[in-house]
Design brief:
The chain is of the alpha+beta class and about 110 residues long. The protein contains 5 helices and 3 strands. The chain has a 3-stranded mixed β-sheet with strand order 1-2-3, with helices on one face. Helix 5 links the parallel strand 2 and strand 3. Helix 1 crosses helix 2. The longest helix has 22 residues.
Length: about 110
Amino acid sequence: MKKSSPSSVGEILAGLMKKTGLGKQMDQARIWDRWDELAGPHLADHGRPHAIRDNTLLVAVDGAVWMNKYAYHKWDILKRINGLFGRELISDIFIMLTPDDAPTPPRDHTD
């Protein structure tokens, strides 16, 4: 019987990422980092990911007008998210209003 060479830490972590929920959570966390790209800069200025529950992304938006705009573009955003990961990571997007007492901080764009 041939003895296999020891696995590197990177190989072990890569295997765990594929076999456990950790990999899915890490991918989901990347949505926050890539939000401007996924939603587009115009929408990203007025909404942001809030949480993920049961493969549904909750997006908090600034007002009713932006809620309608996000609703109109939600399937495009969903397609970009799942395209980024090459699989269905998010199955739906739920859009909610940001509470009035939680003002949205201004965003700093570097173009």
